[in-house]
């Protein structure tokens, strides 16, 4: 059982990644962003997930710098993830994009760097760049985002290094059973973005029944379900009470029967783009 906010999963290269973190998708640069990240760190979060396309890496970097000064955490205690955007996929352009992200964040290295989307004809060259950056010791771990099984198979057959993480849309309406099994079989850690389905599950009757049983919120039940399924999760919030509530999922455990009830909500329904039909 995952017992606290600092508990980690060990990636296939031995790097430890927190099971739980905060995402900053669509949070604009400015005080709200800086405060959200600092608040999360203050309350024990150690994983922060951003991306070049979010256009907020500078604010995340500022928050990290201030949190280190104010709260006594060290850089080494934090796990920082960013992602290379589609327009920069290519060998030289991916390496340049990594350096840009690093400069904006004001960091010496990233803990995890991901290819954001599997753009056909481009992601293999980008992966080769990530392998170089990793081999040169500039990134602790490398991975992908939004890759389906066929993308992973195609990538792995021509790669020297397997992805350590695959971050995908994952929630009770989209359980991605085949993908989850493939990742487990290949030592790739699955991560969830949009774990709360952008709020669309917060009035679900089945989830409300389960939440009432455990005296928890629907959001807490979903996030606990993620963790018990062995999926790293990074809910987004900018409000302190939500940041605290989201992380209050380590004092209860869902029964097998309740896990199955939640699994049964799957409809293969996405709120984000389909990786196979995304207009890049």
UniProtKB/TrEMBL annotation:
Lineage: Bacteria, Bacillati, Bacillota, Bacilli, Bacillales
Keywords of this entry: Oxidoreductase
Single Gene Ontology MF annotation: oxidoreductase activity
Keyword presence, Oxidoreductase: yes
Catalytic residues in the record: 54 (proton donor)
Assigned protein family: Belongs to the aldo/keto reductase family.
Record-listed substrate binding positions: 116
Protein name per UniProt: Aldo/keto reductase
Residue(s) at site: Lowers pKa of active site Tyr: 83
Organism: Metabacillus sediminilitoris
Domain NADP-dependent oxidoreductase, residue spans: 31-266
Pfam families (UniProt xref): Aldo_ket_red (PF00248)
């Amino acid at each position: 059982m995952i017992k606290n906010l600092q508990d980690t999963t060990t990636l296939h290269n031995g790097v430890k990644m927190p099971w739980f973190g905060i995402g900053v998708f669509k949070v604009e640069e400015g005080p709200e962003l800086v405060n959200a990240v600092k608040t999360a760190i203050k309350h024990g979060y150690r994983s922060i997930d951003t991306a070049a396309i979010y256009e907020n890496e500078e604010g995340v970097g500022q928050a990290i710098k201030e949190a280190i000064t104010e709260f006594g955490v060290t850089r080494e205690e934090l796990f920082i993830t960013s992602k290379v955007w589609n327009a920069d996929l290519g060998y030289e352009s991916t390496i340049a994009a990594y350096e840009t992200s690093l400069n904006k964040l004001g960091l010496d290295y990233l803990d995890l760097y991901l290819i954001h989307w599997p753009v056909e004809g481009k992601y293999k060259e980008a992966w080769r760049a990530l392998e170089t950056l990793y081999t040169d010791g500039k990134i602790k771990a490398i991975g992908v985002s939004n890759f389906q099984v066929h993308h992973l198979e195609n990538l792995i057959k021509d790669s020297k290094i397997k992805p350590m993480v695959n971050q995908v849309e994952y929630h009770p309406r989209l359980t991605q059973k085949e993908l989850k099994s493939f990742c487990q079989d290949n030592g790739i850690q699955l991560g969830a973005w949009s774990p709360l389905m952008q709020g669309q599950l917060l009035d679900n009757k089945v989830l409300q029944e389960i939440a009432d049983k455990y005296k928890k919120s629907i959001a807490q039940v979903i996030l606990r379900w993620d963790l018990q399924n062995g999926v790293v999760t990074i809910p987004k919030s900018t409000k302190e009470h939500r940041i605290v509530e989201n992380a209050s999922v380590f004092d209860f455990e869902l029964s097998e029967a309740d896990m199955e009830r939640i699994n049964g909500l799957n409809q293969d329904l996405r709120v984000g783009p389909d990786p196979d039909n995304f207009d890049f």
